[in-house]
Structures are given as C-alpha cells and as structure tokens.
cysteine synthase
Amino acid sequence: MRSWLDVVSLGWLRFDRTTIRHVLYGIIAGLTLSITSTSFALEYQKRKKEHIARQYKPRPIELRSDEIIKGVTGLIGNTPLVRINSLSDALGVEILGKAEFLNPGGSVKDRVALKIIDDAEKQGLLHPHTGSRIFEGTVGSTAIIMPDDVAEEKVKTLLALGAQVERVRPASIVDKKQNLAKQRAMSFGVEDSLSDHAANPRSHLLPTPSSTKPRGFFADQFENRSNFEAHFEGTGPEIWRQTNGRVSAFVSGAGTGGTVAGIGQFLKSMDEDVRIVLADPEGSGLYNKVKHGVMFDRREAEGTKRRHQVDTVVEGIGINRLTKNMELALPILSDAFRITDAEAVSMSRYLVEHDGLFLGSSSACNLVACVKLVKKMAWRDGQSVVTILCDSGNRHYSKFWNDDYLQRAGTPIDMHIIEDLLSP
Ligand SMILES: Cc1ncc(COP(=O)(O)O)c(C=O)c1O
C-alpha cells in the first residue's frame, strides 16, 4: 500500500519519497545550523559582556549610550544613595545618605521648586515668558525672601542665578501678617489685575485670567502639596529601588515637612514596618509635637530665645508651627530626636575626616539622629537606615563651617561627641 509520503503532488509538481526525505533532511540540518550559530553568538556576547564587566567595575553613576539629558531640569533627581562608611562600619548597620547635594541647585529643594512650577503651569496658574514672578520665603535653598542672618553665600548664589533677594528681620512664620513673600506676590502686577482678583479664590496668587499678562505667584512651599508630591513621586520611589526595598528606617529633619512626609508616606505604603523618624534641631517645636503632642520648645517656654523663630546654627530644618506638609508626616512618625548644635557640628567635622564628605548643617543633624536611632533600637545586624544629605558644606562657610563664628556663638567644635556616641 502507498502512503501519502510516497508521492506528494503540488499542482503539476510531483515529489517521490526520496525527494521528500532529502527536503526534510535539508530543513532539519538548516534549523540545527541556525540554532547552533545563534547559541554560539549569544554565548559569545555573554562572555564579551562578562569580560568588559570584569575590566570596568560598576560605578554609582553609570554613563549609558544614547542617554542625553535635555536641559538643566533633567539633572534634578535620580541622585545616588551613598553608604556612609565610617558610621556604617562603626555601627554594624547600613547608614545610607541620598546625595541631594548633587542636584544642580545644590540641594534637596530643587525637586520641590521644579514640581511646584510644573504643577502651576499645568494648572494654568503660571505662564512661561510672560514676565511673571515667583515669590517665596526661604533660608536660601528655595527662593528669594530670606532672613538677614542666613549664611551670606546663599544670598550670593541666588543673586548670581538672577533672583531678586529681599532680606528681612527673622520673623515667626506663625505670624501670618509677616508673610512678606505672599504680600509681594499679591501686589505684583496689581495695577493690571485688581479687578480680576476677587474672581479667583486661590489666596496664594494674584489671578490674571490672561495667559499673556505678568502675574505674581506665591510658591508657598510650606502649604503647597506639590512639595509633598515631589518626594512621594520622586525621592521615595528612588530610595525604594536603590535599596531593593530593604529599608528599616527613614530619618529626616523637617523645614516645610515635605521631605519627611513625601518619602515617609511612600515608604510606608510599600512596607508598613519601615520606621519614619524625625531629626529636630534646637529651638524647633516639632520634637515636642511628635513626643508629647504639643508644639513648643523648652527655650521658648523659658523666654530665652536669641532669635525670633528658630534658635540654632542649623539652617533649613526646625519650625514652630504645623504646616500642611508636616501634617501629612505626623501620623507616620514613630520617633523623634532632638539634635544639639554641638552634635551637628561634631558630626560634620567627623564626616570630613573619616569619609571625605563635606556636608551642610541639616545633613549633619540627620546623621546624628540616624546614630541615635540605631543605638536606641540596639540594631547591629545590617539593618538599613536611610537619610537625606540635603546640601553641601559650601553653602555654610559663614556660619556652620566658620569656626570663629561658632566660637563666638559658644558652640563647641568637638569630634569626641560623635566618637562617644558611636562607641559601644
Ligand atoms: C538645607 C535644607 N535641608 C533640609 C530642608 C528641609 O526640607 P523640607 O522643607 O522638605 O522639610 C531644607 C528646607 O528648606 C533645607 O533648606
């Protein structure tokens, strides 16, 4: 009996058994050859990559091909997470700092400034190239109205960047009448738009319906939710990826509260067990708020404050009122540490000597709080404590990094403070 394989006809073409067998052998041989050569090629590529990898150790900031950043805003964020070797080795715990001083503006606030402006443009509150002006009060990281006792180099930086700086006596931000940045924003361009003002209920900007007229925009980093979101959507997820989700605690100081609230809320949403901890300088009321539910500082109660708002050489963190951004942090804060000026100064000098890290005052505060937390928890088994390295020491030459200034202020410069803290 003849099977269908004996003869195959395709129209007028007829193939006998031998021809079919040869064709099948040909196909199988071709397939085998192609699979083998592909495997060889893949294996070759793998070995080549391994060879290259052996030659070049991976670096924290990797340059990849076809990766051109578009403009200065592309440089904001995606900062490295650096292991603080001296503290980690001494404690047996990974102390990791998010190197925010590498942002183009030199601080963690770059992210917030960008997000506030982006959001305002998306909402139609700000229009580029209309001569509009952004107003903000600051100690120098974000904007243009600043107390007259902040480090001089911060003023110089802002001026060099084209900002107009108005220096004022330090005033309590509890006193809303003294919110000069808001007042200036309200009166900017007022001649053109007074009639429009009542139409818009948003209190922090002067409304101008036209997208071509200049307007004053009060960035309001303390109350503006874009601040929180910059960290919830940016810094928090970056930390989660960089640690592969291994975070035992996140420690941060608070000025507006945006950093601790945004990152803290994000990390908590990923892992309920992450501890969120506040580092608070002298003169701030936040420590008492977290520990005792009330917001006043010991010195304030005794009436011995030297400065109206926050009595410390540490700039950028510490506050005596509850901002909207800080309110978002309170429910997730499990602990707080009060950090003295002497401890912060000591930490900054210790880090230069041991790690070659030249950091600003709030970063130093954060790291003291990391050490205190590890000690309090008796952690020694490689847990990961993440914090923010907010800005560099070069923003602080005239005060925090000025030994004469510190001596006059009665603040000791003593590395033993940190050495004692680290000792078992
Ligand atoms: C140097 C520095 N560190 C830390 C902070 C605190 O960040 P946040 O306002 O998100 O609480 C600020 C805020 O201005 C700052 O300028």
Residues 191-203, 301-310 have pLDDT under 50 and may be disordered. The pocket of pyridoxal-5'-phosphate is lined by residues 107-109, 139, 141-142, 253-259, 316-317, 360, 362, 390-391 (CB under 6 Å).
